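Researcher: I'd like a structural prediction for the single chain below. Treat it as a standalone chain; there are no partners to consider.
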Amino acid sequence: MNKLALLLCLLFIVIVSSCKKEGCTDESAINYDIVANKDDGSCEYCIPAEEGRGSLTFYLIDDIFNSQYYNEQILRIDITGVRRVYSDASCGVLTCYADFTITNLIANNISYIDFWLSIYPSIGGSWYYDHTTNSGASIPEGGQITINDVPASSSCGSLDFASVNDYLYTVSYN
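Model: Treating it as a single chain, here is the predicted structure.
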């Protein structure tokens, strides 16, 4: 009887272990099944999607009274808002950011600039951006600098019809 029970146990183990467990076998998938040994096509991946949140163009005016460019547009700032969403909540959280392209509009190099922008989208959200050129860096005449992935300060409103408050702290030309 003992031999029969042992034989039945071994037969059961062989039958169970020969079964193929189906599931996701790709280790890079978010639903990877460590026990699965046959892929069933159910793998899911983190796929970010980006949605445009509008854009705006803003002109920064030199309002420093004794400046040689007083009351002139010195910079054009093109701002594009983007909202990044993921295919699955476990991949990351919804994020909003803006990309800035800053163009020098004057016939001179801007050797140093420090300004602050508050951007208020037409429907909710806000971006605050404080820009100071790095020491020794300049924006040449007609030149551009690009700053990517400036995070939104709050929810993800559209930049279309946004209002902008600005403050120019200081600017130097050469």
